[in-house]
Amino acid sequence: MKAKKKSLDWIRITGAILFILILAYLANIYITKDKAGNIADRVEKTEPQFAKEGILAFISSEGDTIREIDLEIADDPPSRQQGMMYRSSMSDKRGMLFIFEREAKQSFWMKDTKMSLDILYVSGNKEIVTIYKHTQPYSTTPIPSFKTALYVVELAAGFCDRYHIEEGDQIIFQRK
Q1: Would the CA dihedral through 108, 114, 120, 123 be positive or negative?
Q2: Most exposed of 55, 82, 83, 89 (fewest Cβ within 10 Å)?
């Protein structure tokens, strides 16, 4: 009789565990459905990775090299639109150079940009004409150049203060 009771208890416990697992599975499916009722992709989007495409040097107004960094280059509409969005950090040894088709007044924003940046607007003769330091992550407020620029350099916030980069300094760069 005891063996039969233990067997029934075991069956009840196993049934209860299976019931809980099925409920958890169904809840997971319900939670991961998108608005159209389809099961959403469960693959997490990964942060874009740095791809070295060149080297850039900052040159003081006296002609001295201040600092060199590795570059990722954004020189077409899709890469310029993506920029530094969705990245959470960047080393002081790296930056992004935006190259435009023509020199004009430029304007950026920080929408979908997780980290604060220093943004440098650079003229066609490679002179830094405007610097914004410690920009606000996720902000949609325009960050205008006020002067014409052919290039824009984005760096980790604080870079310009740490290396004493100023308006009037220049850049030189080469592609990899």
Answers
A1: negative
A2: 89
pLDDT in tens, 158-169: 999 999 999 999
Are 168 and 127 a contacting pair, CB within 8 Å? yes
What's the CATH code of the domain at 129?
2.60.120.1140
Helix (H) or strand (E) holding 60: none
81 inside domain:
yes
Residue 101 tokens read as 């088709």
* Cβ atoms within 10 Å of 122's Cβ, excluding its own: 28
Residues contacting 108, CB < 8 A, separation 6+:
83, 119, 142, 143, 152
Domain of residue 17 covers 1-43
- Picking from 72, 58, 74, 136, the residue whose alpha carbon sits closest to that of residue 106 is 74
CB 133 within 8 A of CB 97: no
